[in-house]
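Next up, a specimen:

>
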Amino acid sequence: MSITLRQLQILVAICQRGTITGAADRIGLSQAATSQALAELEKQLQRRLFDRNGRRLKQNAAGTELLPGVIEVLDRVREIERGPGAPSLNIRLCASLTVGNYLLPSFIGRFARRYPGARFQMEVGNTEHVVASVRQFESDAGWIEGLARDPHLRSFPWRQDRLVVIAAPNHPLAGRRVKAAALSDASWVLREKGSGTREVFEEAIAGKFSLLHAPLELGGIGAVKRAVMAGMGLGCISRSTIELELKARQLAVVHTPWLDLHRQITLLVHRQKYLDRGLRQFLGFCGVELSPRLN
């Protein structure tokens, strides 16, 4: 048996892209060469690694079991190529909208100034997207609001965040301390289902009041803020995302001290992810010290 590193790179690309075409585009090979490399690898291992459904490939149990070890081999090879004392500073992150747009950039910027060779790739999406990205090893680490109920991932508390109810400055409830009945009867603009913000909001109001009007659902923090500014209803988003709008008096806070709108921001890492020195260095800079192996 003579498995090549190129075959392993192709295996990872197919697992993450789900098609030969997507994997070929990612690694810069033709579709034919990518397909042939996979066939040769499966022949050498004497087992199928994917279930075929037309052009889609879904890793089966054998492929799922093999993937973490393959990624670790590739990470270790890159460390060997760089030489001793030279950590990898090519870091792939995935974060929820609040964290990715408002909290992590300052850490990335300060880290990059200290280590000019650092290179970051960061995707931003809702909680479901972040969990899937870390689970599939597409990202080295992820940040979400709340907890991930995924047995493949380890969660580490990062920091606390506070949500607030917001309104346009001319809204009747703007700046007021209100009771549940006033919020129940109001129109609302909320994040989409699957977002950490929406989950915290729904848990906070459970047993206190129900929304009498179906909320307008929007898929982004900026969209929610603009809709609330336009007078389309109340919103609920992170206090850290509205500093500029509050100073400019484009938004106002509706005071609800009886609602528990605090949430935990959590760092996610795959249980079987090998954490190279560069990644551990950045996570330590963010305040989370981890060993190379989490198991």
Summary: The longest helix spans residues 61-82. The chain has eleven helices and eleven strands. The chain has three domains: 5-82, 90-159+264-285, 160-262. The chain has a mean pLDDT of 89.
